[in-house]
Amino acid sequence: MASNSLYDILRHSTTPLTNLKRLTSPQTFNSFYSVTLSDTEEINSILTQNKLRLENLNSKPVFRLLDEGSNTLKLSDKLDQTKVAAANIYSGIQNLKNRILLLAIKWPDISDSEVKSELTSLSSIFTQDTNQKNSSLASTTEWLKSSWDNPTITNLMDEAQTAQSQIDNLLNDVITGGKINSATVLDPIIARISKLDELVGSSLATATDPSLFGFIRKTSDQIDIFDKQSAEGIRILTSINDNPSIDMNYDIEQLKSSIIGTNLIPNANLFFTSSKDPNATPNSVLGLLALIDTNKKLLSGKTGAPIQHLWLEEGSIVFRLAVSNPNRTQIGNATIKFSLPEEINKDQVISLDKEISLVFDPKENALVGSGEIVLTPLETRTFMIEVEDIWNFNPREIENLHLQVEGLIQTLKYKPSYSQALLIKKDVENALNKIENQQRLALTPETKIVAFRQSSQELNKIEQTISSLKGLVLGAQSSSGIFNITEGLRTHSLQGLLILIISSSIFIYIYTKSLQSEPRIGFRNRAQPTPRNTAPTNIQHQEHTKPRLHRLARIVIITMISGGIGSIGTSLALKTFTPLSQKTVSQNDPVTVLGTNTDANRKYPYEAEIVPPKEGDIPIRTSPSVTSPQISSLKEARTVSVFKKVDQWVMIMSPNEKTNNNGWWINETYLVHN
Prior knowledge:
This protein is an alpha+beta fold. Among the domains are: 154 residues, no CATH class; 126 residues, Four Helix Bundle (Hemerythrin (Met), subunit A); 68 residues, SH3 type barrels (Roll), CATH 2.30.30. The chain has 18 helices and 15 strands. A hairpin with a 4-residue loop joins strand 6 and strand 7. The N terminus is likely disordered.
């Protein structure tokens, strides 16, 4: 069934989100965002591989019964072919009826050779293939008997064979002994053909008529009932999906009673109880829908042959297989063989019944269940395989994508590519909303898996979009320099620059004033009368030197004050704006995590603790991408070794596990660094 909003799950979760809060803090958004070319190229390569894998996966069914031959018809196609067969039989019987009656009228007047010719022509109607499509009367009745378990069709074939034998016997009598004068010899043949005509009926027959056309009408009505029952089951599931607390027990019981009234499968009670949770309302509806589909398979299959039907239930994900022997007298031997979804590996299989063996089939590129089942007459058995539900998007991984977008946009703020980044952010938000709607509308586990695969393709596009954002950041890194610094100073540090300009203006003003005051000082010195008793020459020299020293001191003091104020303003400006790295980006740059530089000096491997959420598991993936296959999951806290970090992902391996766990990747937000 569809889950709640991805963001609602995360928002209302009781799981501590320390790492996510760290990523969303203003310090992180405004901090140095490190993006390396080696990371970007590695991620792009992984995303391309995931894209091809998802495209191939979406073209395949969720599961498949491999024992169903290519000759198996859809029920609608089989019914259409039956209608065509009935029309051909009706035409042949009418031809026989008219010609045998005409032969009876002309019998006394025609010669032996004419009788032989007409009887030969009548016999050929049963065997002649008029349109080269194996549609003779005899072959058509045989096909009907092998396709439908119905007494009317069985009687029809028997009567057709008897009528043909009577015509052939009369022909042999005429050949050996000549024509008998009385036309009463044709009476048994006429009676048999009349019986055939009665068994075939006409296109105006009702569902209660014991004829071929009556059977077709009854079967058509039965299929319509099955379709209405299926629609009612879907309606109930939709109501439960929209409101999980709604009570639909009455509707389910009504549907159950309706299905029992039209059911053709023995031991139908096996479908009424969920294999995992008998009280699970959705599973009870899924079982009823499976019984309807099994009835349709019985109608579309060959007469008396064992039938198989595979469906999914909730409770992790449960694959249930029903095998039924509709034969009333004979033991049925059924060879079961079916493929599981390609995403599942053996480690994700929780349980399976002992009658089923599970092996990987390279041709199917999936796990295949198989077994040999012996069924007594009118016996039905069910089998089960339970697997982990890996067809859910992890809320924290999705939220982490959102945070990456926010962080990258913060990095590109006040850059020429900022407007382009905002458009990319809008595309990502729209895509995430689309994914959420697809998951919410999924009613059954099968449609949920289909929706997950389709949404994974959308998520892959989102990851590619985020990669393009990283490309913009790399472009900003490569173009950083003096231009970026001055641009940052102009846009981010206006206050600091104003302080610098004001302090410089004050310096120029004071300096100008000091220069203007210098001539007046000299004039006063020249205007003073020379004392009668003049001082020695050195004293006079000191008096002339003092104004110059005072002026020089004032200039130095003003310069120091102005420079200090300007330095403070410049420091504030540079502190407000931290430019991107000036270094040249190369493929040899160390692997770093987008949005943080705290682990730049760590040496690999190092130990860290994994803390899983209180609800749900930690998905382990084959590569650093949210759309990479999930190969396992962690349910308990443990200490692991971190061997590599790419973007928001770390490669881990538990010290207590074997080395075949290389290549296990988890999202870094689950780590608590020691």
